[in-house]
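U., I forgot to send this yesterday:
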Amino acid sequence: MLETNQHNNLDKQSLQELAQNIKDWGKDLGFQQVAIVKPNLDEASQRLRLWLDNNYQGSMNWMSEHGDKRYKIDKLVARTLRVISVRMDYLADDNMVAVLKDNNKAYISRYALGRDYHKLIRKRLAELVRKIEQQLPDVNLSQRPFVDSAPVMEKPLAEQAGLGWIGKNSLLINNEVGSWFFLGEIYTSLPLPEDHLEQPNRCGNCRACLKVCPTDAFPEPYVLDARKCISYQTIENKEAIPESFRPLMGNRVFGCDDCQIICPWNRGAPKTKELDFSPRHNLDNSDLLTLFKWSETEFLTNTEGSPIRRIGYQRWLRNLAVGLGNADGSEKILKQLEATMPDASELVKEHVHWAIQQQRQKLAAIPE
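Result:
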């Protein structure tokens, strides 16, 4: 608890002014929305436990760790009273559908085309924390910023803060901008006034996201079976991609955006103002074969500062091999796959072998 003399220094008006300052500072730091909430995560924690009971988390063991720190916010950061929830838009292009429809292109989830959002947003949130501390030099604050890290239930927190509603695709949807945005949080011991914003669920009878999912990863609306999700298979899964999923992946080699692309609320979604989220190295429109030919040095150089680098070179090749197996029949692709086999790791070799089989079948079916 804040000490009595600190409480005296922070009367209701002072806290209201500070809350407004926090929102203004947040906007100046590039956040499109900043809201303050005193959350109750009891219901969200029940949904999480049910989700874990069904093993929908796959190999993401951290989802079941940390006990109740995930939903009792003051156990993660001592004395936390409020959560400052922020939104930052990231969509930088509008050629997603064209790339998806081209079997020879590599589709990379739009959040990963530019600089790693973890670093960018964490730095901005740390600056916001510093501004709050500078405003209150004599108050013993307990504060910590988060960006898709630690056991933080960011979507339920953002939903309660009024930044949107959790849609049938399990993503947060905002009625003005859709869902192409990142979330971040600051846990704080300040008893800031809550915003009491709310965005009611507007999914209605729409089932577009559920129907479009290539791998049928939604066992029911609002529930994602991560094990069936292409994003999980291409990013989180460290082992071989199940053969039954490979033809369904198409050209999606890092993540999947189908359930966002189809969402009616994403029509006319705003483009990001952050230059750091702009596509690097033509990753928004590259041929599968071009990326597959990258050496490990080229991969490390071209993915420096990118979230793509976290999967490593071997899983990058694994994913691209599946994409090449799904590409149009091509002697050039077949030769490159065959040339890769002798020096490939066991993980990559399995997927290249599968891709070679696919390519041979396609080439055999082409009339002479």
